[in-house]
């Protein structure tokens, strides 16, 4: 434990001594606000779901329904953890010290078990259990349920860590997780089976009843995955030390079909190559694509019931990928802003190209949302409405950040790496992007009905898309008015 405490103290000192510590204070505040937002979001669902499940499944207890979906929660947790660093990266500074690397690795794995993120899902499960479990089993049942869920998240963290370590050696190793989830899917979705959901339902109830076999099984699973991590990561330490970035020349398409679109086509080509070549945009693309698929599946199986939550999730599917990119408009370009500024109207053409690319990428959530449409979970009109509204209203609002972003975003850094904080406008824009469309829809629905509301929102989106040359020109003019201030910020934060 003393080694664990020393490692934690050293890592905190490293953060404080980093030259970017002071500059990152605003970013840290924004991170804390974001954590608080998602915690409140989970609490909201924890309070909402018992009533929703009772209405949708009157013959079953709400906690049985949630327990049936435990694997979905763990799969989402598995993907989120890909944003975090792995111990095989963090052990490097300690290898030169007179400490056995086995002890250092054990301390880092222990720290992973004590990671506060392992408690994050309890913001969902504890409020849910207080409303659905206490009337049958009291607070003891809630505590047992929370402890069992924590053990599962610890085991899941070790499982995610193992795949992340293997992925760093070779990306194809990520396929190791596919047979696992493929077997789970077969066991669940083969006709007349549902074995996985039945098992997780019984496991959750065993936690509530303080069944020792359930806790022992979860502890054994976490321990086995921890030992496997320790063995694999110790084996790969020196591979990691000698690891160099791949600098081999690779063939990348010239996208010659874009030549017909002139200067805008050139910048569309630049956007596509940036997406392929650079770590930060590529990681964002794949992370949010996976998130879109997961939320589309949630819509398919009506995890959130129906009503306004379906609208929110459908909207989230369409806007999350575009928001992650457009919120950083000009921040990425800050890496080469001097080259952009020497060409006539290059900023305008670049903004047009960025908008066209993000509109084209909306085909991904549209295809994903066709599955819940065919299953009847959502209407085709709802899906098309949020596609058009996202392209014509939300994207124009988010692209206003091009005027105010004045800090360079790194092109080759992980999503959770140390980066510059930006400004408070980003938080305001993000919150507004997810709340205002629902407020608009709800207001229109109360006044005009659901179908008419969707038609009105479609019309607003079409107007925004048709008029895009004008509002992009407006963004360009405002950016040029404060270009010297922004360029100084870009140069100082590279």
Automatic annotation (TrEMBL):
Keywords of the record: Membrane, Transmembrane, Transmembrane helix
Keyword presence, Cell division: no
InterPro entries, per the entry: DUF5687 (IPR043742)
Provenance organism: Phocaeicola intestinalis
Transmembrane segments: 29-53, 65-84, 105-130, 136-159, 171-187, 207-228, 283-301, 313-332, 353-374, 380-403, 424-441, 453-472
Source species, domain of life: Bacteria
Name of protein: Transmembrane protein
């Amino acid at each position: 434990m003393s080694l664990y405490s020393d490692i934690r103290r050293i890592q905190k000192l490293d953060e404080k001594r980093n030259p970017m510590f002071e500059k990152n204070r605003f970013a840290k505040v924004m991170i804390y606000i974001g954590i608080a937002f998602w915690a409140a979001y989970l609490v909201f669902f924890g309070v909402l779901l018992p009533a929703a499940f009772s209405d949708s499944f009157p013959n079953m207890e709400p906690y049985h329904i949630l327990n049936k979906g435990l694997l979905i929660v763990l799969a989402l947790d598995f993907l989120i953890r890909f944003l975090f660093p792995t111990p095989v990266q963090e052990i490097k500074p300690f290898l030169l010290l007179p400490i056995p690397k086995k002890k250092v690795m054990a301390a880092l794995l222990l720290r992973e078990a004590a990671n506060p993120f392992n408690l994050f899902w309890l913001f969902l499960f504890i409020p849910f259990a207080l409303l659905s479990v206490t009337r049958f089993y009291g607070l003891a049942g809630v505590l047992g349920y929370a402890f069992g869920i924590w053990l599962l998240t610890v085991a899941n963290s070790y499982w995610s860590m193992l795949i992340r370590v293997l992925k760093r050696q070779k990306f194809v190793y990520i396929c190791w997780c596919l047979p696992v989830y493929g077997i789970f899917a077969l066991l669940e979705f083969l006709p007349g089976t549902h074995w996985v959901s039945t098992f997780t339902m019984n496991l959750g109830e065993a936690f509530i009843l303080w069944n020792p076999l359930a806790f022992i099984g979860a502890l054994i699973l976490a321990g086995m995955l921890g030992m496997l991590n320790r063995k694999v990561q110790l084996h790969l330490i020196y591979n990691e030390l000698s690891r160099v970035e791949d600098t081999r020349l690779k063939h990348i398409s010239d996208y010659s079909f874009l030549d017909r679109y002139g200067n805008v086509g050139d910048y569309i080509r630049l956007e596509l190559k940036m997406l392929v070549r650079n770590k930060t945009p590529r990681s964002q693309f794949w992370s949010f694509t996976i998130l879109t698929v997961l939320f589309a599946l949630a819509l398919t199986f009506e995890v959130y019931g129906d009503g306004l939550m379906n609208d929110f999730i459908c909207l989230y599917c369409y806007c999350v990928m575009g928001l992650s990119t457009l919120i950083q408009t000009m921040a990425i370009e800050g890496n080469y802003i001097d080259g952009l500024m020497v060409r006539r109207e290059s900023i305008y053409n670049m903004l047009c190209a960025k908008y066209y690319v993000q509109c084209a990428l909306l085909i991904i959530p549209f295809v994903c949302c066709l599955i819940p449409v065919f299953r009847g979970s959502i209407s085709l009109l709802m899906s098309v409405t949020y596609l058009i509204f996202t392209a014509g209203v939300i994207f124009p609002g988010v692209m206003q950040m091009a005027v105010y972003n004045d800090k360079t975003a790194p092109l080759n850094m992980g999503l959770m790496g140390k980066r510059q904080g930006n400004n408070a406008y980003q938080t305001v824009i993000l919150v507004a992007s997810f709340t205002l469309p629902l407020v608009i829809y709800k207001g229109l629905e109360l006044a005009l009905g659901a179908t008419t509301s969707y038609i009105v929102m479609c019309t607003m989106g079409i107007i925004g898309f048709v008029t895009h040359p004008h509002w992009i020109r407006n963004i360009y003019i405002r950016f040029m008015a404060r270009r010297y201030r922004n360029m100084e910020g870009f140069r100082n934060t590279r």
